[in-house]
Design goal:
heterodimer, A: 255 residues, 2 domains, four-stranded antiparallel sheet, B: ABC transporter involved in vitamin B12 uptake, BtuC, 74% helix, ATP binding (chain A), ATP-binding (chain A), ABC_transporter-like_ATP-bd (chain A), AAA+_ATPase (chain A)
């Protein structure tokens, strides 16, 4: 299923947070969204998983307007890992994963159990099923939330900085898990090297507008990174794997 | 679950059988049977029959209804504002009802409504408080949890100030006592006439909430998670606010502000069956009903024939029980 963000504009209290953004995610593609803090990444993604309604433009799934669909129908097609982490209620891992079944109607509990068990097995959290979600480590939590998203049986997955607060092994692990799901993925990412290594396409957002897009190494050029992120980037080739990595310094202060 | 239902039945029977007037169990069951089947009792038993059928039974039943209502609303409000410290009274609705009730007790307002004046006035002022909290808490982002709590708490202080002024300005002897009774909550005014409306409202509110157990789970995780799962958090919270306000207003109108049940029963139930609202909402009303029937029984037995406010008993019995359960471990409320 393809995801198209068409000229989406978001306004809050008279300010434009996101302006005329166009993003196309092909069926099965992994598209990354990068940009500095406050550039509108999360706001844009909120429009996609329907926590916000855009002031203009449309989000389409295979051409259908997502915001015109019934909420549960939309949630059967598109799942999300938002950034929020509420910690008031001590749900077990199995209960958190089972929430992914909510959008589905006319289901049996046997079917729910089977789908959830499969989702937990795929993300390697089956052994945590009876544990309290709040007591898990950051990496385990993300795996459980991915299991919840898979239990929705969606065709599109939206992730808002899924690797935040994770150590490097868990960052790679989470992205590999998402990549391996085979779903159409749109993810906001902070780590540019990680984004370059995992995404088919990158979109760079700055000040609520898309300023560049394309294959990662065409997009992440030193001139653009200086302009958008205010850093000096040095591409270097990994001596063993040959992949290009970026090293960063702050730009020297303008005099 | 069936065990808890049986326990409630036993509790109700105890609530009817025990009391200041010593009536033998054989007579109690005979009167209950007569009442249920429309039979007759000898004229010499009329006084005892009246105590069992017209005073103790409606009181026990109303206690069960109020306990179930407070526990159910407590569960819903905690999920609605995503706060483990919330209870049915955090939104200021009970403080509003107290203003109306005390206007009747102390100032003789609505005297034309006779015995209904207290309930009507309490419910009307609960509705007014609801409307006020709703109007103030609204924002372009809907009813956000923190705004709701802050608005409710702030307005509750205002309502309580009004009540205090009335108590200080107008209370004389017995009126001050009944105002106090109302502030702490009491089932002393229970009659059959008060039962049906409260029972129907609590049952309808509970049924409505049960059908939304899964959306409540999502809401407890967060608004964005809810949206991603196909729940509309703003709309759900608006509906929850209205339903919980209606149930709270009705319950408070017949029993005053009985504390502790709505705050602690949800936690006790979560300790026992976990946080999933599908189970919590099945168990909480029964647990609340059992707790309040026993608390009310103790409140009339301990200093018989005098009565303690039932809120005192719920606290004296409930607090240690709750702390013990909590200490037993494994329960993380409000995070770790």
């Amino acid at each position: 299923m393809r995801l198209d963000i068409e000229d989406v504009t978001v306004e809050a209290a008279g300010t434009r947070l996101v302006e005329d953004v166009r993003i196309a995610v092909d069926s099965g593609a992994f598209v990354g969204l990068v940009g500095p803090n406050g550039s509108g990444k999360s706001t844009l993604l909120r429009c996609v998983y329907r926590a916000l309604r855009p002031a203009g433009g449309a989000v389409r799934l295979d051409g259908d307007d997502l915001h015109a669909m019934a909420p549960r129908a939309a949630a059967r097609e598109l799942a999300a890992l938002p950034q929020e982490s509420s910690a008031e209620f001590d749900f077990t891992v199995a209960e958190v994963v089972a929430m992914g079944r909510l959008p589905h109607r006319n289901r049996t509990s046997a079917e729910d159990r089977a789908v959830c068990a499969r989702a937990m097995a795929r993300t390697g959290v089956a052994h945590l099923a009876g544990r309290g979600f709040l007591a898990l480590s950051g990496g385990e939590k993300q795996r459980v939330l991915i299991a919840r998203a898979l239990a929705q049986r969606p065709r599109v997955l939206v992730l808002d900085e899924p690797t935040n607060h994770l150590d490097i092994a868990h960052q790679l692990d989470v992205l590999a898990l998402v990549r391996g799901s085979g779903l159409t993925v749109l993810a906001a990412l902070h780590d540019l090297n990680l984004a370059a290594a995992h995404c088919d396409l990158l979109y760079v957002i700055d000040g609520g507008r898309i300023v560049a897009s394309g294959p990662p190494h065409d997009v992440l050029r030193p001139a653009l990174l200086a302009e958008v992120f205010g850093v000096r980037a040095h591409p270097v080739r990994h001596p063993e794997t040959g992949t290009v990595q970026l090293l960063f310094d702050l730009l020297p202060p303008a005099t | 679950m069936p065990g808890l239902g049986l326990l409630l039945l036993v509790s109700l029977v105890c609530g009817v059988g025990l009391g200041a007037a010593g009536i033998g169990w054989a007579d109690v069951f005979r009167f209950l049977w007569a009442g249920l089947t429309g039979g007759t009792v000898p004229a010499t038993d009329a006084a005892a029959y009246t105590i069992v059928w017209e005073i103790r039974l409606p009181r026990a039943v109303l206690g069960a209804v109020v306990g179930a209502g407070l526990a159910t609303v407590g569960v819903a409000v905690q999920a609605m504002v995503r706060n483990a410290l919330a209870d049915p009274f955090v939104l200021g609705i009970s403080s509003g009802a107290t203003v109306g009730a005390n206007a009747v007790i102390l100032l003789g307002a609505f005297a034309g409504l006779g015995v209904w004046a207290l309930s009507v006035s309490a419910f009307a002022s609960a509705l007014a408080a609801t409307a006020l909290v709703y109007a103030v808490a609204r924002s372009p982002h809907g009813l956000t949890p923190l705004r709701l709590i802050l608005t409710g708490t702030a307005l509750a202080y205002g309502f309580e100030a009004v009540t205090t002024v009335m108590v200080f300005g107008a209370a004389r002897g017995e009126a001050a006592r009944s105002a106090m009774m109302w502030l702490l909550g009491s089932l002393g005014g229970a009659t059959w006439a008060r039962v049906p409306l409260a029972a129907v409202t609590v049952a309808a509110g509970w049924a409505w909430l049960r059908r939304r157990a899964e959306p409540l789970n999502a809401l407890a995780m967060g608004d964005e998670t809810s949206a991603a799962l196909g729940v509309q958090p703003a709309r759900l919270r608006r509906e929850l606010f209205l339903v919980t306000a209606a149930v709270t207003g009705t319950v408070v109108a017949v029993s005053g502000a009985i504390g502790f049940v709505g705050l602690m029963v949800p936690h006790v139930v979560r300790i026992l069956v976990g946080a999933d609202h599908r189970r919590v909402l099945a168990v909480a009303p029964l647990a609340g009903a059992v707790l309040l029937v026993w608390a009310d029984l103790l409140s009339r037995l301990l200093l018989a024939p005098a009565e303690l406010p039932v809120g005192v008993i719920t606290a004296v019995v409930g607090v240690p029980a709750f702390l013990l359960l909590m200490r037993r471990g494994g329960y993380a409320f409000g995070g770790r």
